[in-house]
Amino acid sequence: MTTLTVSVAAVVVSVLALLLKRNNAEYSFILAVSATAMALIYLSGYIIETVDVIKEIFSKTSISMSYLVILLKCVGISFISEFASDCSKDAGQVALSSIVLTSGRISVLICALPLFTELLSMVSELCGG
């Protein structure tokens, strides 16, 4: 039901934004950004439920919870940078959009460095080094 609700709302807002774009392009942009923010707020309950399930899975295994924190940070960075990039594209700022995505990718890489370090040490131990 969630996908259907968000999809129908997105189509309705898209049509309204197209109608507004003819006369007031800035209002069209504001409408699209506002609708996206409202959709994220609507989905936040489902996101929290999903994170709780993932936490439960991690707690039942021997995997450290610090890895979950890193994973969630990387996902959050990805969502935020994608949203900001799309907003920049909608505003006609393609170069700015690209740099936002690049910044997000670099941030994810930096955030995930502890995982890479741990993976390399595990491989090293398995290889007897």
Summarize the structure.
The chain is mostly helical. Helix content is 90%, strand content 0%.
Strands, total number: 0
Q: Specify the structural class.
A: mainly alpha
Query: End-to-end distance, in Å?
Result: 52 Å
Show unreliable segments: none
Output the radius of gyration: 20 Å
Strand content: under 5%
The number of helices is: 4
Shape: elongated
Largest sheet: none
Q: On the 0-100 scale, what is the average pLDDT? A: 89
* SSE sequence, one letter per element: HHHH
Helix content: over 70%
Descriptive report:
- It contains four helices and no strands.
- It is an all-alpha fold and 129 residues long.
What is the strand and helix layout of this fold?
Blueprint: H1 2-23, H2 25-59, H3 65-90, H4 94-126
Give me some keywords for this one.
4 helices
